[in-house]
Amino acid sequence: MKKFSQWLDKKKTDQRFKKAGAGRTLADADTKPRPTPPASVAAPVRAQSRERPREGNSAAAAAALARFEKKKEETAMVTPRVFSGGANAGSVSLDEDLARLQMQKNAMHKARMAREKAATADEAGPAAADSASEPKPVSNQRTAKLYFRCPDGVIVEESQVRHHLVRLLEDNFAAAEEPVMAAIELIYTACESEQQCTTCVNTLGKFIGNVRKDPAEPKYRKIRLSNEMVRNRVASVPGAVDLLRAVGFEDETIDGEPHLVLGDDAAALLAVGAEEVLAVLGAGEPATAEFSHNPQVVSVEQSAKSVALPESFYAHSKADVQTQAVLRVSEKNEELTLRTQEMRDKNIAAKKTYRFALIRVRFPDKRVVQATFRVTDTVGKVAEVVSECLTSPAEFTLHHPGAAPSSLDDHTRTLLDANLAPSSLLNISFRDAANAPVLRSDLPLLDA
Length: 448
Hints:
Elements: H1 2-20, H2 55-78, E1 82-83, E2 90-91, H3 94-124, H4 126-133, E3 141-143, E4 147-149, E5 155-157, H5 161-173, H6 179-190, H7 194-213, E6 222-224, H8 228-235, H9 240-246, E7 249-254, E8 257-262, H10 264-282, E9 290-292, E10 296-298, H11 300-303, E11 306-308, H12 318-327, H13 329-334, H14 341-351, E12 356-362, E13 368-374, H15 379-388, E14 396-399, E15 423-430
Parallel strand pairs: 3-11, 12-15
Antiparallel strand pairs: 1-2, 4-5, 4-9, 6-8, 7-8, 10-13, 12-13, 14-15
Protein backbone atom coordinates (compact mmCIF):
# COMPACT_ATOMS: atom_id res chain seq x y z
CA MET A 1 0.00 0.00 0.00
CA LYS A 2 2.87 2.34 0.77
CA LYS A 3 4.55 1.65 -2.57
CA PHE A 4 1.29 2.39 -4.34
CA SER A 5 0.99 5.74 -2.55
CA GLN A 6 4.56 6.65 -3.57
CA TRP A 7 3.86 5.75 -7.18
CA LEU A 8 0.69 7.82 -7.19
CA ASP A 9 2.48 10.85 -5.73
CA LYS A 10 5.14 10.61 -8.46
CA LYS A 11 2.44 10.56 -11.11
CA LYS A 12 0.83 13.64 -9.70
CA THR A 13 4.13 15.43 -9.53
CA ASP A 14 4.80 14.65 -13.18
CA GLN A 15 1.42 15.99 -14.11
CA ARG A 16 2.06 19.21 -12.28
CA PHE A 17 5.43 19.64 -14.08
CA LYS A 18 3.76 19.20 -17.40
CA LYS A 19 1.15 21.83 -16.56
CA ALA A 20 3.75 24.27 -15.30
CA GLY A 21 5.73 24.12 -18.60
CA ALA A 22 9.39 24.36 -19.35
CA GLY A 23 11.41 26.79 -17.32
CA ARG A 24 8.90 26.98 -14.44
CA THR A 25 8.94 25.68 -10.92
CA LEU A 26 6.13 24.19 -8.90
CA ALA A 27 6.38 27.14 -6.46
CA ASP A 28 5.56 29.75 -9.20
CA ALA A 29 2.21 31.44 -8.61
CA ASP A 30 1.42 31.55 -12.31
CA THR A 31 0.97 28.01 -13.33
CA LYS A 32 0.15 28.93 -16.94
CA PRO A 33 2.52 27.05 -19.19
CA ARG A 34 4.99 29.09 -21.25
CA PRO A 35 4.85 28.83 -25.04
CA THR A 36 7.10 26.17 -26.51
CA PRO A 37 9.96 27.68 -28.62
CA PRO A 38 9.83 26.90 -32.34
CA ALA A 39 11.74 23.91 -33.63
CA SER A 40 14.06 26.17 -35.70
CA VAL A 41 15.55 27.63 -32.53
CA ALA A 42 18.18 25.25 -31.30
CA ALA A 43 18.32 24.63 -27.62
CA PRO A 44 21.54 25.66 -25.94
CA VAL A 45 24.02 22.83 -25.74
CA ARG A 46 25.94 22.43 -22.58
CA ALA A 47 29.68 22.18 -22.99
CA GLN A 48 30.87 18.73 -22.20
CA SER A 49 33.68 18.41 -19.81
CA ARG A 50 37.02 17.47 -21.48
CA GLU A 51 39.81 15.40 -20.15
CA ARG A 52 43.03 17.15 -19.19
CA PRO A 53 45.59 16.79 -22.05
CA ARG A 54 48.57 14.66 -21.42
CA GLU A 55 51.98 16.15 -20.78
CA GLY A 56 53.39 15.09 -24.20
CA ASN A 57 50.43 16.51 -26.08
CA SER A 58 50.76 19.80 -24.20
CA ALA A 59 54.42 20.10 -25.16
CA ALA A 60 53.68 19.43 -28.84
CA ALA A 61 50.90 22.01 -28.86
CA ALA A 62 53.16 24.60 -27.24
CA ALA A 63 55.88 23.98 -29.87
CA ALA A 64 53.39 24.30 -32.72
CA LEU A 65 52.04 27.53 -31.28
CA ALA A 66 55.57 28.92 -31.00
CA ARG A 67 56.30 28.11 -34.66
CA PHE A 68 53.08 29.75 -35.73
CA GLU A 69 53.88 32.93 -33.79
CA LYS A 70 57.43 33.06 -35.26
CA LYS A 71 56.18 32.67 -38.83
CA LYS A 72 53.62 35.38 -38.19
CA GLU A 73 56.35 37.78 -37.00
CA GLU A 74 58.55 37.06 -40.07
CA THR A 75 55.62 37.67 -42.41
CA ALA A 76 54.89 40.96 -40.70
CA MET A 77 58.51 42.12 -41.21
CA VAL A 78 58.36 41.76 -45.04
CA THR A 79 54.73 42.67 -45.60
CA PRO A 80 54.58 45.59 -48.06
CA ARG A 81 52.89 48.84 -47.38
CA VAL A 82 49.11 49.09 -47.71
CA PHE A 83 47.80 51.73 -50.06
CA SER A 84 44.29 53.01 -49.65
CA GLY A 85 42.01 55.35 -51.49
CA GLY A 86 40.30 55.24 -54.85
CA ALA A 87 37.92 52.78 -56.35
CA ASN A 88 40.62 50.05 -56.61
CA ALA A 89 42.11 50.57 -53.18
CA GLY A 90 43.68 47.53 -51.59
CA SER A 91 46.89 45.93 -50.48
CA VAL A 92 49.74 45.22 -52.91
CA SER A 93 51.11 41.68 -52.99
CA LEU A 94 54.69 40.99 -51.94
CA ASP A 95 55.85 39.90 -55.44
CA GLU A 96 54.43 43.00 -57.12
CA ASP A 97 55.99 45.34 -54.57
CA LEU A 98 59.41 43.70 -54.82
CA ALA A 99 59.27 43.84 -58.64
CA ARG A 100 58.36 47.52 -58.54
CA LEU A 101 61.21 48.32 -56.17
CA GLN A 102 63.69 46.36 -58.36
CA MET A 103 62.57 48.27 -61.45
CA GLN A 104 63.07 51.58 -59.67
CA LYS A 105 66.53 50.48 -58.55
CA ASN A 106 67.55 49.45 -62.10
CA ALA A 107 66.29 52.73 -63.53
CA MET A 108 68.28 54.73 -60.99
CA HIS A 109 71.41 52.67 -61.73
CA LYS A 110 71.11 53.21 -65.50
CA ALA A 111 70.60 56.93 -65.04
CA ARG A 112 73.66 57.18 -62.80
CA MET A 113 75.83 55.24 -65.29
CA ALA A 114 74.65 57.45 -68.15
CA ARG A 115 75.58 60.58 -66.22
CA GLU A 116 79.03 59.21 -65.37
CA LYS A 117 79.66 58.16 -69.00
CA ALA A 118 78.62 61.58 -70.29
CA ALA A 119 80.87 63.33 -67.78
CA THR A 120 83.85 61.13 -68.74
CA ALA A 121 83.30 61.76 -72.47
CA ASP A 122 83.18 65.52 -71.92
CA GLU A 123 86.47 65.46 -70.01
CA ALA A 124 88.38 63.11 -72.36
CA GLY A 125 87.19 64.59 -75.65
CA PRO A 126 86.03 62.97 -78.93
CA ALA A 127 89.32 61.18 -79.63
CA ALA A 128 89.11 59.19 -76.42
CA ALA A 129 85.48 58.31 -77.16
CA ASP A 130 86.43 56.88 -80.57
CA SER A 131 89.27 54.83 -79.14
CA ALA A 132 87.07 53.52 -76.35
CA SER A 133 84.55 52.20 -78.86
CA GLU A 134 87.20 50.13 -80.68
CA PRO A 135 87.48 46.49 -79.53
CA LYS A 136 90.64 45.71 -77.60
CA PRO A 137 92.74 42.82 -78.91
CA VAL A 138 93.24 39.77 -76.74
CA SER A 139 96.72 40.08 -75.28
CA ASN A 140 97.20 36.66 -73.73
CA GLN A 141 96.49 34.49 -76.77
CA ARG A 142 97.36 34.33 -80.47
CA THR A 143 96.16 32.10 -83.28
CA ALA A 144 98.58 29.91 -85.21
CA LYS A 145 98.63 30.29 -88.99
CA LEU A 146 99.38 28.07 -91.96
CA TYR A 147 101.64 29.38 -94.72
CA PHE A 148 102.05 28.37 -98.36
CA ARG A 149 104.64 29.24 -101.00
CA CYS A 150 103.08 30.31 -104.29
CA PRO A 151 104.72 29.63 -107.71
CA ASP A 152 106.15 33.16 -107.73
CA GLY A 153 107.99 32.44 -104.45
CA VAL A 154 105.74 34.60 -102.26
CA ILE A 155 104.71 33.04 -98.92
CA VAL A 156 101.14 33.85 -97.93
CA GLU A 157 98.67 32.72 -95.30
CA GLU A 158 96.28 29.91 -96.09
CA SER A 159 93.29 32.25 -96.31
CA GLN A 160 95.05 34.35 -98.99
CA VAL A 161 96.33 31.52 -101.19
CA ARG A 162 93.47 31.36 -103.69
CA HIS A 163 93.27 35.13 -104.06
CA HIS A 164 97.01 35.39 -104.69
CA LEU A 165 97.01 32.53 -107.22
CA VAL A 166 94.10 34.04 -109.18
CA ARG A 167 95.82 37.40 -109.36
CA LEU A 168 99.07 35.72 -110.45
CA LEU A 169 97.35 33.76 -113.23
CA GLU A 170 95.48 36.85 -114.45
CA ASP A 171 98.70 38.84 -114.60
CA ASN A 172 100.47 36.11 -116.59
CA PHE A 173 97.57 35.21 -118.90
CA ALA A 174 98.50 37.66 -121.64
CA ALA A 175 102.00 36.14 -121.93
CA ALA A 176 100.82 32.51 -121.75
CA GLU A 177 102.06 30.30 -124.60
CA GLU A 178 98.90 28.18 -124.45
CA PRO A 179 95.96 30.48 -123.66
CA VAL A 180 93.44 27.60 -123.60
CA MET A 181 95.37 25.75 -120.89
CA ALA A 182 95.98 28.99 -118.97
CA ALA A 183 92.28 29.91 -119.07
CA ILE A 184 91.20 26.46 -117.86
CA GLU A 185 93.66 26.59 -114.95
CA LEU A 186 92.38 30.05 -114.04
CA ILE A 187 88.76 28.79 -114.06
CA TYR A 188 89.47 25.90 -111.71
CA THR A 189 91.53 28.12 -109.40
CA ALA A 190 89.06 31.01 -109.22
CA CYS A 191 85.94 29.01 -108.42
CA GLU A 192 85.07 29.25 -104.73
CA SER A 193 83.25 25.91 -104.60
CA GLU A 194 83.10 22.63 -106.47
CA GLN A 195 79.50 23.31 -107.45
CA GLN A 196 80.39 26.65 -109.03
CA CYS A 197 83.24 25.04 -110.94
CA THR A 198 81.07 22.19 -112.21
CA THR A 199 78.33 24.59 -113.36
CA CYS A 200 80.79 26.82 -115.21
CA VAL A 201 82.63 23.94 -116.89
CA ASN A 202 79.40 22.25 -117.99
CA THR A 203 78.07 25.50 -119.47
CA LEU A 204 81.30 26.12 -121.40
CA GLY A 205 81.26 22.53 -122.57
CA LYS A 206 77.73 22.99 -123.88
CA PHE A 207 78.73 26.10 -125.86
CA ILE A 208 81.69 24.34 -127.45
CA GLY A 209 79.81 21.07 -127.97
CA ASN A 210 77.00 22.84 -129.83
CA VAL A 211 79.52 24.31 -132.26
CA ARG A 212 81.06 20.89 -132.80
CA LYS A 213 77.62 19.41 -133.45
CA ASP A 214 76.51 22.10 -135.94
CA PRO A 215 79.15 24.74 -136.74
CA ALA A 216 76.89 26.42 -139.30
CA GLU A 217 74.04 27.14 -136.88
CA PRO A 218 74.02 30.92 -136.13
CA LYS A 219 72.49 30.62 -132.66
CA TYR A 220 75.39 28.38 -131.54
CA ARG A 221 77.93 30.95 -132.71
CA LYS A 222 76.58 33.92 -130.75
CA ILE A 223 76.59 34.36 -126.94
CA ARG A 224 74.94 37.36 -125.29
CA LEU A 225 77.03 38.24 -122.24
CA SER A 226 74.22 40.26 -120.64
CA ASN A 227 72.05 37.14 -120.41
CA GLU A 228 71.39 36.33 -116.77
CA MET A 229 72.36 32.67 -117.12
CA VAL A 230 75.57 33.51 -118.98
CA ARG A 231 76.42 36.25 -116.53
CA ASN A 232 75.93 34.07 -113.43
CA ARG A 233 77.47 30.85 -114.70
CA VAL A 234 80.23 32.04 -117.04
CA ALA A 235 81.01 35.74 -117.08
CA SER A 236 81.32 35.96 -113.26
CA VAL A 237 84.12 33.34 -113.20
CA PRO A 238 87.61 34.63 -114.05
CA GLY A 239 89.03 32.84 -117.08
CA ALA A 240 85.70 31.61 -118.50
CA VAL A 241 85.27 34.37 -121.09
CA ASP A 242 89.02 34.19 -121.80
CA LEU A 243 88.59 30.52 -122.74
CA LEU A 244 85.84 31.36 -125.22
CA ARG A 245 88.04 34.03 -126.76
CA ALA A 246 90.93 31.56 -126.92
CA VAL A 247 88.88 29.07 -128.97
CA GLY A 248 87.86 31.70 -131.54
CA PHE A 249 85.01 33.82 -130.15
CA GLU A 250 85.38 37.57 -130.61
CA ASP A 251 83.81 40.53 -128.81
CA GLU A 252 81.08 42.35 -130.66
CA THR A 253 78.29 44.77 -129.75
CA ILE A 254 74.85 43.90 -131.13
CA ASP A 255 71.87 46.15 -130.44
CA GLY A 256 73.86 47.92 -127.77
CA GLU A 257 74.66 44.71 -125.84
CA PRO A 258 78.02 42.90 -125.59
CA HIS A 259 78.21 39.55 -127.39
CA LEU A 260 80.77 36.88 -128.21
CA VAL A 261 80.54 35.93 -131.86
CA LEU A 262 82.24 33.05 -133.68
CA GLY A 263 83.16 33.67 -137.34
CA ASP A 264 82.87 31.14 -140.14
CA ASP A 265 86.55 30.19 -140.24
CA ALA A 266 86.83 30.08 -136.45
CA ALA A 267 83.72 27.90 -136.24
CA ALA A 268 85.21 25.41 -138.71
CA LEU A 269 88.48 25.24 -136.75
CA LEU A 270 86.67 24.85 -133.41
CA ALA A 271 84.52 22.05 -134.82
CA VAL A 272 87.70 20.13 -135.61
CA GLY A 273 89.47 20.73 -132.31
CA ALA A 274 86.42 20.81 -130.04
CA GLU A 275 86.87 17.24 -128.84
CA GLU A 276 90.38 17.95 -127.61
CA VAL A 277 89.31 21.20 -125.95
CA LEU A 278 86.46 19.45 -124.15
CA ALA A 279 88.79 16.71 -122.92
CA VAL A 280 91.24 19.26 -121.50
CA LEU A 281 88.38 21.27 -119.98
CA GLY A 282 86.95 18.24 -118.21
CA ALA A 283 90.33 17.23 -116.78
CA GLY A 284 91.39 20.67 -115.57
CA GLU A 285 93.17 21.22 -112.26
CA PRO A 286 93.55 24.35 -110.10
CA ALA A 287 96.89 25.97 -109.47
CA THR A 288 98.44 24.95 -106.17
CA ALA A 289 100.79 26.43 -103.64
CA GLU A 290 103.45 24.45 -101.81
CA PHE A 291 103.11 24.09 -98.08
CA SER A 292 105.75 26.16 -96.28
CA HIS A 293 107.16 25.43 -92.86
CA ASN A 294 107.93 29.17 -92.60
CA PRO A 295 110.23 29.13 -89.55
CA GLN A 296 109.97 32.27 -87.44
CA VAL A 297 111.69 33.57 -84.33
CA VAL A 298 109.37 33.95 -81.35
CA SER A 299 110.03 36.80 -78.95
CA VAL A 300 110.02 36.30 -75.19
CA GLU A 301 106.70 38.12 -74.84
CA GLN A 302 105.04 36.05 -77.56
CA SER A 303 106.40 32.76 -76.26
CA ALA A 304 104.55 33.40 -73.00
CA LYS A 305 101.21 33.61 -74.80
CA SER A 306 99.05 30.58 -75.35
CA VAL A 307 98.52 29.48 -78.94
CA ALA A 308 95.06 28.80 -80.34
CA LEU A 309 95.02 26.37 -83.28
CA PRO A 310 92.73 27.19 -86.23
CA GLU A 311 90.19 24.77 -87.64
CA SER A 312 92.50 23.99 -90.56
CA PHE A 313 94.78 22.10 -88.13
CA TYR A 314 92.03 19.52 -87.60
CA ALA A 315 90.04 19.26 -90.84
CA HIS A 316 91.07 16.33 -93.03
CA SER A 317 91.06 16.00 -96.78
CA LYS A 318 90.71 12.66 -98.55
CA ALA A 319 94.40 12.70 -99.48
CA ASP A 320 95.40 13.21 -95.84
CA VAL A 321 93.37 10.21 -94.69
CA GLN A 322 94.78 7.99 -97.43
CA THR A 323 98.35 9.03 -96.66
CA GLN A 324 97.97 8.34 -92.96
CA ALA A 325 96.38 4.95 -93.65
CA VAL A 326 99.33 3.91 -95.82
CA LEU A 327 101.89 5.09 -93.26
CA ARG A 328 100.29 3.11 -90.46
CA VAL A 329 99.81 -0.24 -92.19
CA SER A 330 103.10 -1.73 -90.99
CA GLU A 331 102.76 -0.39 -87.45
CA LYS A 332 99.21 -1.69 -87.16
CA ASN A 333 100.33 -5.18 -88.10
CA GLU A 334 103.02 -5.09 -85.42
CA GLU A 335 100.54 -4.07 -82.74
CA LEU A 336 98.14 -6.94 -83.37
CA THR A 337 99.45 -8.94 -80.43
CA LEU A 338 99.96 -5.94 -78.14
CA ARG A 339 96.56 -4.25 -78.04
CA THR A 340 92.91 -5.12 -78.40
CA GLN A 341 91.06 -4.06 -81.52
CA GLU A 342 89.11 -1.45 -79.58
CA MET A 343 92.27 0.11 -78.18
CA ARG A 344 93.96 0.22 -81.59
CA ASP A 345 90.94 1.78 -83.30
CA LYS A 346 90.61 4.38 -80.57
CA ASN A 347 94.28 5.32 -80.82
CA ILE A 348 94.20 5.59 -84.63
CA ALA A 349 91.02 7.67 -84.56
CA ALA A 350 92.53 10.07 -82.04
CA LYS A 351 95.64 10.60 -84.15
CA LYS A 352 93.64 11.19 -87.32
CA THR A 353 92.02 14.29 -85.89
CA TYR A 354 94.99 16.47 -86.90
CA ARG A 355 96.43 17.60 -90.22
CA PHE A 356 99.23 19.85 -89.04
CA ALA A 357 101.51 20.24 -86.06
CA LEU A 358 102.93 23.45 -84.61
CA ILE A 359 106.48 22.80 -83.34
CA ARG A 360 108.51 25.22 -81.24
CA VAL A 361 112.19 24.60 -80.56
CA ARG A 362 113.81 26.34 -77.61
CA PHE A 363 117.54 27.10 -77.78
CA PRO A 364 119.93 27.30 -74.83
CA ASP A 365 119.80 31.12 -74.95
CA LYS A 366 115.98 30.91 -74.42
CA ARG A 367 115.24 31.98 -77.98
CA VAL A 368 112.46 30.02 -79.67
CA VAL A 369 111.95 29.06 -83.31
CA GLN A 370 108.45 28.14 -84.48
CA ALA A 371 107.51 26.22 -87.63
CA THR A 372 104.47 24.34 -88.94
CA PHE A 373 104.61 20.77 -90.27
CA ARG A 374 102.24 18.20 -91.66
CA VAL A 375 101.51 15.40 -89.23
CA THR A 376 102.90 12.97 -91.81
CA ASP A 377 106.29 14.70 -91.70
CA THR A 378 109.00 12.90 -89.78
CA VAL A 379 111.09 13.97 -86.82
CA GLY A 380 114.01 14.14 -89.26
CA LYS A 381 112.12 16.81 -91.24
CA VAL A 382 111.87 18.93 -88.09
CA ALA A 383 115.59 18.54 -87.52
CA GLU A 384 116.24 19.51 -91.15
CA VAL A 385 114.22 22.74 -90.86
CA VAL A 386 115.93 23.62 -87.58
CA SER A 387 119.32 23.01 -89.15
CA GLU A 388 118.49 25.46 -91.95
CA CYS A 389 117.90 28.15 -89.33
CA LEU A 390 121.47 27.91 -87.97
CA THR A 391 124.42 30.00 -89.07
CA SER A 392 126.54 26.87 -89.58
CA PRO A 393 125.98 23.09 -89.57
CA ALA A 394 126.16 21.39 -86.20
CA GLU A 395 125.19 18.12 -84.55
CA PHE A 396 122.26 18.38 -82.16
CA THR A 397 119.36 16.41 -80.69
CA LEU A 398 115.76 17.35 -80.08
CA HIS A 399 113.90 16.20 -76.99
CA HIS A 400 110.93 16.99 -74.82
CA PRO A 401 111.59 19.27 -71.83
CA GLY A 402 112.62 17.10 -68.91
CA ALA A 403 113.08 14.01 -71.09
CA ALA A 404 116.31 12.30 -72.09
CA PRO A 405 118.15 13.84 -75.08
CA SER A 406 117.68 10.58 -76.97
CA SER A 407 113.88 10.57 -76.72
CA LEU A 408 113.48 11.66 -80.38
CA ASP A 409 116.54 9.97 -81.91
CA ASP A 410 114.40 7.93 -84.31
CA HIS A 411 114.12 10.42 -87.17
CA THR A 412 111.92 8.09 -89.23
CA ARG A 413 108.93 8.43 -86.90
CA THR A 414 106.12 10.69 -88.03
CA LEU A 415 104.94 13.53 -85.85
CA LEU A 416 101.75 11.57 -85.20
CA ASP A 417 103.66 8.53 -83.97
CA ALA A 418 105.96 10.72 -81.86
CA ASN A 419 102.90 12.36 -80.23
CA LEU A 420 104.02 15.82 -81.34
CA ALA A 421 100.66 16.81 -82.85
CA PRO A 422 98.94 19.19 -82.71
CA SER A 423 101.57 21.34 -80.95
CA SER A 424 104.74 20.69 -78.98
CA LEU A 425 107.66 22.52 -77.40
CA LEU A 426 111.06 20.84 -77.82
CA ASN A 427 114.50 21.62 -76.45
CA ILE A 428 117.64 21.48 -78.56
CA SER A 429 120.97 20.18 -77.22
CA PHE A 430 124.21 20.62 -79.19
CA ARG A 431 126.96 18.01 -79.07
CA ASP A 432 129.58 20.76 -78.88
CA ALA A 433 127.85 23.27 -76.62
CA ALA A 434 130.91 25.54 -76.45
CA ASN A 435 130.97 26.08 -80.22
CA ALA A 436 127.26 25.88 -80.85
CA PRO A 437 126.00 28.00 -83.77
CA VAL A 438 123.36 30.65 -83.36
CA LEU A 439 120.19 31.47 -85.26
CA ARG A 440 120.46 33.28 -88.56
CA SER A 441 119.83 36.99 -88.27
CA ASP A 442 117.67 37.09 -91.39
CA LEU A 443 114.95 34.84 -89.93
CA PRO A 444 111.62 36.64 -89.82
CA LEU A 445 110.09 37.52 -86.50
CA LEU A 446 106.73 36.05 -85.60
CA ASP A 447 104.04 38.53 -86.50
CA ALA A 448 101.95 39.79 -83.62
